[in-house]
Design a protein that fits this description.
Bound molecules: zinc ion
Distance between the termini: 32 Å
Strand order of the largest sheet: 4-3-5-8-6-7
Helix content: 25-40%
CATH topology: Aminopeptidase
CATH architecture: 3-Layer(aba) Sandwich
Number of helices: 10
Largest sheet: 6 strands, mixed
Length: 262
């Protein structure tokens, strides 16, 4: 249950401290961002929803083929719009052990071309209240998909464009912060070392899709579509495979770490 007092932006979240009994990994939700009438952000010829889907489906495929005893659940496998609130719901209802959301980034419209050429690389996010650097920008953009959904005012308690809405903290996700950070760091490392991507590191952001997941959750921005070179690379099946493979290896390593602890 979420209660929001207008003006105060006070949020109370019903929270079961018991949470998951075990952090062992047997089910993973792979969430390709956007889809259908929501293209996400755009490069000069690329839609975020297409890059996200290609990478997400590959990540799922690699996990299915190479990690025994792990079931992959996809929030979408084709070009369909899945509402933002449905994504964590899918993960929670399946009692998933991990949630990995795949997106692509861009700089805002009006950014000078020199800046667009300069900024490229991956960013790995966990849920957090401190939106550092461009994290708030990313949160606003990623959350604004809500505005495309019918009756969004009735269903969501916040305005994705209002900065005040982001002064929230979600206890459900904070219970898994440590493990979310472990997975995020492994992904970041793999994408740097194995996939050869430039990285801006692990960051926190108020990303709606991560707020209500009752399991360790990360969101990966696989690159900047606003960078002409990176846009081309993100369309290259070989680069998509490298990125997906990096995320898959990180998941595998995460599972190994958890299994060793148990
Ligand atoms: Zn996105």
């Amino acid at each position: 249950m979420i209660l929001l007092c207008p003006g105060l932006f006070l949020i109370l979240v019903s929270f079961s401290p018991a949470g998951k009994e075990s952090l062992a990994v047997t089910k993973i939700v792979i969430d390709a961002g956007h889809g259908g009438k929501d293209p996400g952000t755009k490069g000069s010829y690329t839609k975020e929803k297409d890059v996200a889907l290609k990478v997400a489906n590959l990540v799922g495929k690699y996990i299915e083929e190479n990690i025994k005893g792990v079931e992959v659940i996809y929030t979408r496998k084709g070009d369909s719009l899945v509402e933002l609130e449905k994504r964590p719901e899918i993960a929670n209802s399946h009692n998933s052990d991990l949630f990995v959301s795949i997106h692509a980034n861009s700089l805002p419209k009006g950014t000078p071309p020199e800046r667009k050429k300069e900024i490229k690389g991956v960013e790995v996010y966990v849920m957090g209240a401190q939106n550092t650097d461009r994290a708030l920008e990313v949160a606003k953009r990623e959350n604004s998909v809500i505005l495309l959904e019918e009756d969004y005012e009735k269903r969501y308690d916040f305005d994705p464009q209002s900065e005040e809405s982001y002064i929230l903290y979600n206890l459900t996700q904070s219970a898994y912060q440590k493990n979310s950070l472990i997975l995020a760091s492994l992904i970041d490392e793999q994408l740097k070392k194995r996939a050869g991507r430039k990285s801006y590191g692990v960051k926190q952001s108020s990303l709606y899709v991560l707020w209500n997941t009752a399991m360790p959750s990360v969101l990966v921005e696989v690159g900047y579509l606003s960078n002409p070179i990176e846009e081309k690379e993100l369309n290259d099946p070989k680069v998509q495979a490298y990125i997906a493979s990096g995320i898959y290896r990180a998941v595998k390593e995460y599972k190994k770490t958890i299994d060793t602890q148990n």
